[in-house]
Specification:
Arc Repressor Mutant, subunit A
């Protein structure tokens, strides 16, 4: 199956989008080592496709404060545990927050907070699969692939007040 890639500028810097003919399969922020991507991404070619155009439009609308729910189709491949975590993240609505413990409980693994953190960190379609909405149980911001300043900005776009490393 053909894979396509598109770069776009956003208020948080460059975002790189990967898609096949059916869905968005990757969204990465800033500079990243493409060697860490799945091998199949290496053959992606730069081309406008309906999926990439829809993703760009929705992401631009999100940053403009006009979009609260993404509709662009996404596909992801991971372990069964990772996929359960990612499905759970899709249930976190715009402006909502969950802790790692909340996500662990939602997938029936209440003691798997650290493993949930690992799966959240491997989310291949960040922003659209909203891993930025997961914070520490005490309200602190925790790791984020795009960096904590980006996580802060995403949470602010969704109406949260962030003071230092805490959501107020």
């Amino acid at each position: 199956m053909e894979l396509y890639v598109k770069h776009m500028q956003t208020p948080i810097g460059e975002i790189t989008l990967y898609a096949n003919d059916r869905a968005l399969i990757g969204l990465y922020m800033g500079k990243f080592d493409t060697k860490e991507l799945p091998d199949r991404f290496q053959s992606a070619r730069e081309q406008e496709t309906p999926i990439l155009v829809a993703a760009q439009r929705e992401i631009a609308d999100y940053f403009a404060g006009k979009l609260k729910e993404f509709t662009v189709p996404v596909e992801y491949k991971g372990t069964p545990f990772q996929e359960a975590v990612w499905r759970s993240l899709l249930d976190i609505g715009h402006g909502e927050l969950r802790s790692y413990a909340d996500v662990a409980a939602s997938i029936g693994k209440p003691l798997a907070c650290r493993a949930v953190g690992g799966a959240v960190g491997r989310n291949p379609v960040s922003i659209i699969i909203p891993c930025h909405r997961v914070i520490g149980s005490n309200g602190t911001l925790t790791g984020f692939g795009g960096g904590l300043p980006v996580k802060t900005r995403l949470l602010q776009i969704e109406g949260h007040r962030v003071e230092g490393s805490r959501v107020a």
